[in-house]
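2024-03-11 09:14:02 DEBUG pipeline.ingest accepted 1 chain
2024-03-11 09:14:02 DEBUG pipeline.ingest length=351
2024-03-11 09:14:03 DEBUG pipeline.predict start
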Amino acid sequence: YVVTEATSPLVSIVIVNYDGAELLRQCLKSVFAQPYRPIEVIVVDNASVDDSVEIVRREFPQVRLILNKRNLGFAEGNNVGVEAASGEFVVLLNNDATVEAQWLPSLLEAINEPNVAVVTSTVITDGIPAEFYEMNGSVNYLGYNIMRQFADTTKVFYAGGTSLMFRKNIVGEPFLREYFLYHEDVYLSWRLRLQGLDIRMAPNSIVMHKGNATTKKEASSLITFYQERNRILNLLLLYETITLIKLAPFLMFDVLAKLGNAALSNSKSLPGTLKAYWWLATHSKWLRAQRAKEQAARKVSDEIVLRLMSADVFDESRAPKIVRILNVCAQFYARLVGLPFLTPEHRTVKN
């Protein structure tokens, strides 16, 4: 059936695509199969060279298609789609995702809760063990994911970019175009938290996700560059100065560990890592100007936001037990210098 209530708000769904023809086809099929109406579907194509555009034109003529002349990336591509959106509510959806029936109604219900600015879906990603969906994760001081922190599955630190909803008149342009891809979703949620707004998950809004289906085609150096640079950008732009000073040991340890790991293993690209640090060193003017804007917009102190972040250096769910010693040391240092941190909620999963 199709929901066609006259009182239902228009939802604009923005899908950025780059050479993801078959993924996009499956994504759009699922969007039009889910029952909520009215919807406006906007596909922003980042200069694909496959048959993505032809598929949309031939099989989904109701889609509003925006053709970029070059690959603007995930961040600016979504900005273009949001600017064109007519709906009161905007959903950003990855092209490698498919949605289930209660996807939109559940998002709408959650976003109407008081003070909630952005709502994310429960994203079931290929290859992720089921245990990681029993509790929601957060991030640590350095912006790395730390799993199993919130037993209340409506709680999250940030809304994942695979599927998220916001009111256009509150959020406006969601991302900085300089991010291109990676960590832009953390940036969005973090900056809104600094404005005193809340970020939530709608547990019954289910999305199935292929996971890195598009970006895995890219060179590892480029991926490493954006992952490392953008993660550090979030820290430099959004933390108060005193917080950055207190976190200096964490930051120095992280840089040395990242360089060592890139040099000694194939998990990250050393050229990409070095390029990220070089970019940060050579764009100080932009950094200062953007940081000033972010800090001027804040309404709450870091103390409030840090209580939702972990002091752990490593995610213990993925690491040997010996790293718990390092995490205990990190927590001790945080207490010593007066940095609040998240105490994980009880491990008993709610029925």
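2024-03-11 09:14:41 DEBUG pipeline.report Residues 191 and 211 are 25 Å apart (CA to CA).
2024-03-11 09:14:41 DEBUG pipeline.predict end
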